[in-house]
Amino acid sequence: MRHSPSGAHVESAVQPRSLPSLAYDGACRVLSGNWTGSSTVPSRALYPHQWSWDSGFIAIGLRHVSPARAQRELETLFAAQWADGRVPHIVFNPEIPLGAYFPSPDFWRSSAAGDKAGAPASVETSGVVQPPVHALAAWLVHQADPAASARRGFLRRLYPRLVAWQRYLTGPRDLGGHGLAAIVHPWESGMDNSPCWDPPLARISPAASGSFHRADLDHGCRADRPTDLDYGRYVRLAGSYRDRGYEDRPGTHPFAVEDPAFNALLIASEYALADIAAALGDEAADPAEHLVRAESLTWALVSRLWSEEEGLFLCRDVLADERLPQRSAAGLLPLVLPGLPEEVAAALLRTARGPHFGLGGPARLVPSYDLTGSGFDPARYWRGPAWFNVNWLLERGMRLHGADLTADALRAEMLRAAVASDFAEYVDPFSGKARGTRDFSWTAALTLDLSLAKDRAGHAGSPTAGVASR
Fold first, then answer.
1. What is the set of active-site residues?
2. pTM of the prediction?
3. DSSP letter string over 348-392?
4. Which family is this protein grouped under (predicted)?
């Protein structure tokens, strides 16, 4: 017998053990080791607090072995939500020493500097956000055990918080005035040092190198991490945002970019909210409102960020009002959307298999950045390595748009790479060699999801099939 993170017994696989069985057991081990009692850290050493989109992906995997713990993962995160609706990208554990991670709570000073924006007084957080995968995660977690979810009032309690989170992003964060959310710091994209950010970051004067200590280099290889110049600019942007009280007025941000991946997850979450509203079944939750909003946002995404010439969605620098030419895996992620025009979805599939991303050719997994780009680096964080959350989303999107054979092959490669790399944070897209930290929680959680999935296709007939219903 083997044990799930919840302590439940799960029947062992028939010998010899299959790859999904090995992946399942390893993933459960990682998630058990990174559980703190109320949430899951991404990594014990490198990331010792709770991260926002990490917890969304972690809950998606946890739902298979402990729906209750998956619910608690999201509830713990949303307990730190600000009054303006934002969900901070880090919720700090007060038991962790300040020097264990930078920027630490004394840098962000959320409860003081964020007071006017509604930062909670009882917990310290960062002041920036991460991509909004949370409504999708909440819906999938509910589906894992609908009866227990209903008894606990999970969706009913979380729904208004999820709506407030979405409205923050489509309200104060619509800095371009065309409906899309803008990120105001590279950290908000989740793809911190993507070459997409190089042009707008070039406008930012970095903080002095001696003014901060990079705790990440105490635990990670320098060649795998962002450069000191990148970090200096990150610190300058974050400090400036803090000193303005985390205010989001247009014209106050020196960095503002519409990111296709961030907005694709925003739209996917509207579809998930439609399913949640339907499940709640009362006047306070209207599915039609979310579906209309999803359609409107999809139209804005295509009109603002789609490049027919590139066969890819591109980021847009809001301040310069121009698309950025760098090709990133972020531009493939709108494939998760059911309302995407058929010709756009077909072009994205061709681009994923083409020379820039190499899927099914030189690349085992989709890289985070263009294989032919001058900024490509197979080792350095988001400048080329393959990440499991990106590939998990693409696997779903491929199935949604009928590319089942490609999705099957990608799923198999993800399982192999996860097991072989000891559930690495990210891997070399060609060789699958481990990069970053090991025993990484979202790698384990999404591997767990893949290892248990027999039929990854969405339910036919659902308006959100393959995105918010499974």
1. 192, 425
2. 0.93
3. HHHHHHSTTT-BTTTBSS--SB-TTSTT--SSSTTSS-EEHHHHH
4. Belongs to the glycosyl hydrolase 63 family.
